[in-house]
Amino acid sequence: xxxxxxxxxxxxxxxxxxxxxxxxxxxxxxxxxxxxxxxxxxxxxxxxxxxxxxxxxxxxxxxxxxxxxxxxxxxxxxxxxxxxxxxxxxxxxxxxxxxxxxxxxxxxxxxxxxxxxxxxxxxxxxxxxxxxxxxxxxxxxxxxxxxxxxxxxxxxxxxxxxxxxxxxxxxxxxxxxxxxxxxxxxxxxxxxxxxxxxxxxxxxxxxxxxxxxxxxxxxxxxxxxxxxxxxxxxxxxxxxxxxxxxxxxxxxx
Length: 253
Ligand SMILES: C[S@@+](CC[C@H](N)C(=O)[O-])C[C@H]1O[C@@H](n2cnc3c(N)ncnc32)[C@H](O)[C@@H]1O
What we know:
Shape: globular
CATH superfamily of the largest domain: Vaccinia Virus protein VP39
Number of domains: 2
Radius of gyration: 18 Å
Bound molecules: S-adenosylmethionine
Structural class: alpha/beta
Order of helices and strands: EHHEHEHEEHEEEEEHEE
Number of strands: 12
Oligomer: single chain
Largest sheet: 7 strands, mixed
CATH class of the largest domain: Alpha Beta
CATH architecture of the largest domain: 3-Layer(aba) Sandwich
Number of helices: 6
Helix content: 25-40%
Strand content: 35-45%
Strand order of the largest sheet: 4-3-2-5-6-12-11
Distance between the termini: 45 Å
CATH topology of the largest domain: Rossmann fold
């Protein structure tokens, strides 16, 4: 069976339910409201197919992406080449990375803060604090878990240009003390009549709000806010019945 992150096109179609231009407007609003520095260089962790790259380049930001998957990095590079932009794409681990030049804004989308344990979580924040200029923001989409880890299953179908993909996303608790769970993403792809089965399994550590605050503060970040469903008019209070795609914003002191 193929791995999902070695199949950028199928990944892109499977996760194409987002309104990317609108999300980039939210990023811009966050930058305008909370950044204490002018933003030129923007960094994405686990950039994958770099869904927000085109919109950010159109707004004159310089785009830097880091990812472990060579296929994803090549896919993003080809997208940037087609658009006629220069970008920086690095094969690096978000847990421990280094950039030659710091950035003014950093972000992680769609719960892609991939850490397996507490050491990796601490190491990530330590590396981000070195890579981000003081006054700059770190924006996280769906990376903080506002509910306790529970087994879950989600299904949807995505289509584009004659390709139909049935997606199953599931998580299973591994250890409630270590706060680990197994995330499974399974795709059944019908590509013009040819069927492919693709699977991605990752062991992940859940990140709860109070430890997110503690660890980030310890590494020189101040907490700016968190909001429900990408809506800056819906700050999270903890009493919400449904929390979907929460966003969190930190600022480097
Ligand atoms: C869910 S995809 C997100 C892609 C894209 N950012 C988006 O918004 O759709 C997660 C990406 O993170 C990458 N990834 C997983 N673990 C990583 C790590 N430790 N360091 C860097 N990238 C990693 C995967 O290769 C994959 O491309």
